[in-house]
């Protein structure tokens, strides 16, 4: 895959670009932006003064602390102008993962001659040995594909981090370039994702075990219920705190900085200091928007699959799996890149607020002298 000419990220409805100042030489053919011959930029107690115009927005986002609208606008802009490295990566990963249960179900149905009518009212005792084996094979492959999809989407998130960073300074990465840019970070990203999943699992398992012990030890139903509610709220609060303080921003830090897994966790914790509720609010809203939009996109496919199950009852298992696979591809095509883009933009925003990261990005974009 070869990269085409780089694209700019113009703001919607913006007027045609003006001629560059005389102090800035024209960009050579094929160069994405003019070289770094910017005028001197004064620095104040509050940081670098805004330059305005193209100097302040070389790419998908303005290089200043971001508002919620700027983050969402930047996320959609990146997805729109670079669909191959964003939507394409998510579609490719999900399609490959979900193809596995479809192939297994096709083999079970047409090669093994096993048909399972999901519309019929029957218990597990009514299933033949062949039907039971077919169901176990199909659902086992679905579990395996879910794990494979989790691994793939973790790598897509790492790639999206690089794509967003490049878009912030006006560069457009191809799918191949985005994949190559994560070399040396992929196993760390998977390790971080596994650590997150294990931590959340331990928290919930600990809550369930503690609740079971309380129920066994006390004879009062009311006390058990009250303890269950209170401990659930406490567990949920611990989950939220762990998510935002320890696991939400470490992925961008891990990919963009020279740190390991635990170093990235420390970076995420420091960046969210005094910014917890703002970070949590944006993260929660983004997750709700992504979930709702993904559900709307996949609903027609899911409904069609449910209808076709009754049209083709003997192949209902295959129809259901094909429908679920297509719905997953459609949903992840939007949700995965959108969530990853907003997460990375929150990381960029917090670094600009705390570490003058906008100055570093301006230098990288060629808008300030090195």
TrEMBL record:
<feature type="transmembrane region" description="Helical">
    <location>
        <begin position="222"/>
        <end position="244"/>
    </location>
</feature>
<keyword id="KW-1133">Transmembrane helix</keyword>
<feature type="region of interest" description="Disordered">
    <location>
        <begin position="1"/>
        <end position="39"/>
    </location>
</feature>
<feature type="transmembrane region" description="Helical">
    <location>
        <begin position="87"/>
        <end position="112"/>
    </location>
</feature>
<keyword id="KW-0472">Membrane</keyword>
<keyword id="KW-0812">Transmembrane</keyword>
<feature type="transmembrane region" description="Helical">
    <location>
        <begin position="276"/>
        <end position="297"/>
    </location>
</feature>
<feature type="compositionally biased region" description="Pro residues">
    <location>
        <begin position="7"/>
        <end position="20"/>
    </location>
</feature>
<feature type="transmembrane region" description="Helical">
    <location>
        <begin position="189"/>
        <end position="216"/>
    </location>
</feature>
<protein>
    <recommendedName>
        <fullName>Glycerophosphoryl diester phosphodiesterase membrane domain-containing protein</fullName>
    </recommendedName>
</protein>
<feature type="transmembrane region" description="Helical">
    <location>
        <begin position="317"/>
        <end position="345"/>
    </location>
</feature>
């Amino acid at each position: 895959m070869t990269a085409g000419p780089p694209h700019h990220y113009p703001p919607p409805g913006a007027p045609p670009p003006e001629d560059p100042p005389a102090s800035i030489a024209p960009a050579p053919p094929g160069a994405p932006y003019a070289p770094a011959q910017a005028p001197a930029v004064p620095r104040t107690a509050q940081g670098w003064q805004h330059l305005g115009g193209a100097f302040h927005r070389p790419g998908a986002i303005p290089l200043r602390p971001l508002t919620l609208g700027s983050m969402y606008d930047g996320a959609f802009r990146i997805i729109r102008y670079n669909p191959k490295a964003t939507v394409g990566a998510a579609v490719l990963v999900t399609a490959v993962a979900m193809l596995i249960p479809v192939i297994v179900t096709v083999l079970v149905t047409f090669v093994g001659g096993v048909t399972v009518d999901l519309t019929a009212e029957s218990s597990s005792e009514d299933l033949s040995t062949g039907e039971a084996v077919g169901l176990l094979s199909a659902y086992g492959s679905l579990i395996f594909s879910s794990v494979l999809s989790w691994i793939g989407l973790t790598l897509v998130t790492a790639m999206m981090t690089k794509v967003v960073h490049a878009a912030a300074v006006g560069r457009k990465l191809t799918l191949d370039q985005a994949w190559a840019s994560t070399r040396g970070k992929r196993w760390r990203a998977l390790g971080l994702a596994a650590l997150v999943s294990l931590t959340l699992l331990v928290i919930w398992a600990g809550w369930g075990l503690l609740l079971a012990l309380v129920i066994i030890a006390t004879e009062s139903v009311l006390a058990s219920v009250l303890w269950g509610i209170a401990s659930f709220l406490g567990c949920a609060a611990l989950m939220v705190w762990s998510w935002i303080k320890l696991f939400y921003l470490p992925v961008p830090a891990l990919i963009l900085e020279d740190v390991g897994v635990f170093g990235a966790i420390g970076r995420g914790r420091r960046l969210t200091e005094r910014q917890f509720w703002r970070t949590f609010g944006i993260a929660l809203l983004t997750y709700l928007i992504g979930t709702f939009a993904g559900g709307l996109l996949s609903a027609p496919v899911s409904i069609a699959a449910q209808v076709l199950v009754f049209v083709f009852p003997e192949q209902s298992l295959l129809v259901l799996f094909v429908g679920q696979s297509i719905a997953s591809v459609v949903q992840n095509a939007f949700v995965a890149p959108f969530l990853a883009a907003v997460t990375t933009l929150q990381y960029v925003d917090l670094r600009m607020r705390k570490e003058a990261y906008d100055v570093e990005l301006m230098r990288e974009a060629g808008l300030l002298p090195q």
